[in-house]
Each structure stands twice: as C-alpha cells, then as structure tokens.
Amino acid sequence: MSRQSNLLENVQRAFSTARFIVNHPLNRNRKFEALGKWFCWQIGSRLVPGPVAVPFVNHSRLLLGPGMTGATGNIYCGLQEFEPMSFAMHFLGPADFFVDVGANVGAYSILAASLGVPCVSFEPVPETFKIFLENIRLNNFEGFITAHNRALSSHEGEVTITRELDATNHIVSNGKSLSSRGTQTVQVQAQTLDNVLENQIPSLIKIDAEGHDLEVLEGAVKILSAPSLQALIIEATRHETHTILSQYDFKPYKYLPFARKLTGVDWHKENLGEYLYIRDYEVVHSKVSRACPFSLLGQKI
C-alpha cells in the first residue's frame, strides 16, 4: 500500500471513529468531552509502554492499548456496544449463567462478572487471550470467569484463524480467508459448545464469531433446545442464522435501554448485523423492566 493510500485510510478511519463517538447514545450531551477523551487516548496510550487499566462498569477495569479498536470505545463511550451491553446489564443477575463466544479482551465477560454472574468464555487468538486473562486477574474475577483459549464450531478439530485483525479476527474457511485483509494465521483447537458445557445451560449467550456464527449454533443443539436459555446476543452474518434460531422459537428484537423496551424486528426487511434473540418475551421483559438501574458517565440507565 502506498503512503498516500495509507494516509487516506487512516483519515477515513479517524472520521468514522469520530462519527461513532458523537452519535453514541451516552455522548449526546457530552460530545466534546468524549472527543477530548478520544484525542487524549490516541496520544497518551502511545506514550505508555503496554496496556493501560481504564475504568469500566461497576468499579471494574479493562486493560486496553493502541490498536484494540474492538474495546477502546468503552473508554470514550462508556459501553461501546450500548444496546446489547445495556441489555446484559439489565438482564443478568447472580442466579444466571453467561456464555461469551468471541470474548476478545473480555469486555462482556468482565461486565457479567461485575454483576456477580458466573460465565464461561471463549477467545481463540492466543495474543488476545493473554490480555483477556490479565483483565480477569486485574479484577480478581478468577472465581467468576472460566476462560478457554479455543474456537467453537460445528465439529471438533483444528481450525485456522487470523491473528492480526483485532476484533475482526476470523476463522479461515477451506484454505481461503473470509476477509481480504490479514495474512498471519494460527492453528487453534475447536470444540462444540454442547461438548464444552456438557450439562451447564446458560440463560444468555453472546456470539461474535466474525462469520462463523452459524457453525457455532450448529454445535449447540442441546443448549439451544433447553428452555432455560432465554436470550442470545449474536452478530448474524448469514440468513441461515436467523432460520436456525427460529427453529428453536427464538425471535429477533432490538433493545431500547433508557425505556427498558424490547421491539420486535422483521429480519427479512433488515440488514444482517447484531441482533438480540429472545425465546419468551414475557419472561425477559419482566427481568429487564424490574432490574436496578446502573450509572455510567453521569447517567442512570
């Protein structure tokens, strides 16, 4: 890539990030403050060797560093993925069990553990997994989070995954990358969710498998069939993902955190992307509507 092309890509990425920050729901009344945090982070994080511990939800912290674009949005936006993370905050309680597929550096797992919720988490990329373990130790959450350095799929065996794309690392399928970027890969062990969890059934699963979501579901037939699994947060990359979840009576919703409202979605008319899937609307609505509010960036949610 030429120097000019590289500069143009960096400028475009910066504008995209700035747009995300100012449009984030928690930044509506603090746009300049949030942009200032972003600017300070871009400079400060490059002056400090290694990751920096930054405040997160419920007095927890995250170790973050330059290039961790999948998690650094939590610094200037409070919750990078506002709607699904807020749903997890309102839905989960100590009586629940959470599964985090594609944990990255562990933001969702740390969030769940900060609520006193036990969780089992999966992050296949070795370098990212090391940071995830550091985040667990930083918060003394060893008793809440069981972390696995492996991939999940429809079958057991070795898979190849990219290792240099941060939150967009993905499994290489049939010798071909699912992304046009990235050439460094690593072999990791893959298992099915049914086999790893055995008889443990979560109440909420988050799946961010960068194009491998359908295979994860195909390896979780027993878990998807269990009535105690009430919801999934999933990045759907194929229409077959919607089809398989509908076979287990899950329906897609969007969550409005400030209103504590679940709104139904017709996925036939929507773009593929992140969805909240719910089996029993009344049960889930009752839990989120009765949950205690949490405070973040001077706002109650």
Structure characterization notes:
This protein has one domain: Vaccinia Virus protein VP39 (Rossmann fold, 3-Layer(aba) Sandwich), CATH 3.40.50. It is globular, with a radius of gyration of 19 Å. The protein is α/β, with parallel strands linked by helices and 301 residues long. Mean pLDDT is 88; it is low at 175-180. The strands form 4 sheets. The protein has an 8-stranded mixed beta sheet with strand order 5-4-3-10-11-14-12-13. It contains 11 helices and 16 strands.
List its traits.
301 residues, alpha/beta, Rossmann fold, 8-stranded mixed β-sheet, 4-stranded mixed β-sheet, 11 helices, globular
Overall 3D shape: globular
- The CATH class is Alpha Beta
Main sheet record: 8 strands, mixed
> Count of helices?
11
Radius of gyration, in angstroms, nearest whole number = 19 Å
Tell me the series of helices and strands, N- to C-terminal: HHEEHHEHEHEEEEEHEHHEHEEEHEE
Low-confidence stretches: 175-180
The main sheet orders its strands as 5-4-3-10-11-14-12-13
Head-to-tail CA distance between termini:
44 Å
Amount of beta strand: 15-25%
Instruction: Report the strand count.
Output: 16
Briefly note the structural class of the backbone.
alpha/beta
CATH-defined topology: Rossmann fold
Domain module count:
1
- The amount of helix comes to 25-40%
User: What is the mean predicted local confidence, pLDDT?
Assistant: 88
**CATH superfamily (homologous) name:** Vaccinia Virus protein VP39
